[in-house]
Amino acid sequence: MLEAIIAMFASIGRLMLGALAAIGRVALFAVNTVRRGLTPPYYPQKLFEQLAHIGWFSLPVVGLTAIFTGAALAQQTFTAGTRFNATSTVPAIVVLGIVRELGPVLVGLMVAGRVSSAMAAELGTMRVTEQLDAMTTLRTDPYRYLIAPRLFAAVIALPLMVLVANAIGIFGGYMIAVYKLGFNHVGYLKVTREFLEVDDFVMALVKAGVFGFFIALMGCYHGFRAAGGAAGVGEGTRNAVVSAFILILLSNLIITVMAFG
């Protein structure tokens, strides 16, 4: 009996030590990337390429997600409000729900699914085919040339995409409310402006910057450490997306509690 209890605690200890070691490796990878990315040589062309890839090419899926979410949120809020004679709260709930929570989180998740997987697959392929080793041999730092541009581009692009997604999401709620639910368009926009504050936008941008950092960090980290051929690349891609999702949801909770708790 005693041996079973000791074995159980030993397994828990191994899991905790493994988790702490993994967190330490990710933290060192992030610090190393930021430190090298802020020192010359710089590669602005790579930065702009990643801005286009992460931001511009992700706008269609982000826009569709935002407008459908805003419309669905307005419909569901109206349906729930009819039970309590509170349908007038639809504009306020839609704008606050989109700007504070749904906009940043949904953009982060959609971009993570699209970008983290692509980064992990690209860097993982370069790792298993020894292209990263060849770059190092040619005195080109992979951190500065490949990883830092992706990290900085994601931190820049995500807040801009969240601004666009918030506007599109609010517009989707407006369209449903005015043209299906019978709201007056002037009154709807007036309530939206009254309840929307600058702090809400600031919080959304802070969340987006944090999400962008985690998206690029997880994609680059798991791709950079890939091993074992095609199977290793596939595993790294899967781990990148899952870990990015978890960090987005966890950091969203922490930021929300710190800001509004």
Quick gist of this model?
The chain is mainly alpha-helical and 261 residues long.
Describe the structure.
The termini are far apart. The protein has one domain. With 261 residues, the protein is mainly alpha-helical.
Q: Radius of gyration, Cα only, in angstroms? A: 22 Å
Order of helices and strands: HHHHHHHHH
Spans of 5+ residues with little confidence (pLDDT < 50)?
Answer: none
Kindly, what is the distance between the CA atoms of the first and last residues, rounded to a whole number of angstroms? 45 Å
The shape is: globular
Q: How does the major sheet shape up?
A: none
**Mean model confidence by pLDDT:** 89
- Tally of extended strands? 0
Helix content: over 70%
Task: Please state the structural category.
Answer: mainly alpha
Per DSSP, the total helix count is 9
Strand content: under 5%
Number of domain modules: 1
What's the structural blueprint in terms of helices and strands?
Layout: H1 2-37, H2 44-54, H3 59-81, H4 90-128, H5 131-137, H6 142-179, H7 185-195, H8 198-224, H9 229-260
Helix pairs in contact: 1-6, 2-6, 3-4, 3-6, 4-6, 4-7, 4-8, 4-9, 6-8, 8-9
Using brief descriptors, characterize the structure shown.
261 residues, globular, mainly alpha
